[in-house]
Amino acid sequence: MIETIQMAAQASDFVNSFGASTGFSLFWAICAIGGGMLGAGIGGNWAFVMTGFSVFLGFGIAATTGSDIGLTYLAFGPVFGPHVCFASAVAAHAYAGRKGLLGDKKGKDIDTSPAGFGDPTMLWIGAAFGLGGYLVERCIRLIPWFGSNTDTVALTVFLSAFVTRLVFGKTPIFNWTSKLTDKESWLRWQEKPSQWITIGVMASLMAGGLSLTVAYLLPAVNPETAKVLELNAQALPFGISAITILMLILGFKIPVTHHITITAGLAAMVWFPVVGHNLILALVAAVVFGVMAAGLAEVAQRLMYARGDTHIDPPAASIWLSHTIVCALALLF
Questions:
Q1: Are 311 and 90 in contact (CB under 8 A)?
Q2: 255: enclosing H helix or E strand
Q3: Is the pTM of this model over 0.90?
Q4: Which residues cross the membrane (predicted)?
Q5: What is the pLDDT of residue 146?
Q6: What is the DSSP string of 54-90?
């Protein structure tokens, strides 16, 4: 066990020696090329499911070693970071849609694995967007206040989708619709206020409670490990939501909640000290902001997704904006 811990610590030091934890890293940039190619090969939703599993692996590594390498490098870095792996897949899907390979859903079909078309161009597109995703995310981090108070990964996914539509799409980025058809709809069972509000409340209670449980356990671990777990507590319910996307791929009509759970988990942690470390009030904050995130995703789908021919991710649009709102409002108290 001691040898394992020492090896993990050495691995973390090795990766961080390339500047990965603080700024640009040539090592991580090169690896992001591979991560992008991987995402383009397996497809967007499949890549995102792998992000979910990676979150759990990352938490396991953090809990046993005190290292955040499983989260920063694997789950949210150049391997399965959505800004690298998922965003690159979205670009590959858009290219396939432009060539007429994805049928009626065009470039919005992010379940099909692009590698199956046998066109290496899609993989190279993924590689380019993987590298681009890494570079953009690092640049966003450098923006004063905003870079440390938004979800840089989600914002990069969002911006990458803009570029994807401009390059491979034929429809405008913004095109509001109040009436959705079956063909246009993102999630038919999650578009009415009664639906997304209910889902938002329930998912937020789960996420807020889980994140606060992580906070409750912090005194039981060493300070180094506690810091890693506290900074990433909201990622745990997010990981659960990401894994459930597997059921969506397989055809089950399940709630899509990762934009809700990561926002609610973050709100619970950020507002916990603001409300005097009151668990119930922290849960209330989680629900309020989680429902807000659910509503923002619905606005995003009607504004940018429904009438588009490429995938602009409603959850990503919601996550970065919700994260910023949660942090900005907390500063007022």
A1: yes
A2: none
A3: yes
A4: 20-39, 46-65, 71-96, 117-136, 196-219, 231-249, 280-300
A5: 97
A6: HHHHHHHHHHHHS--HIIIIIISSTTT-TTTHHHHHH
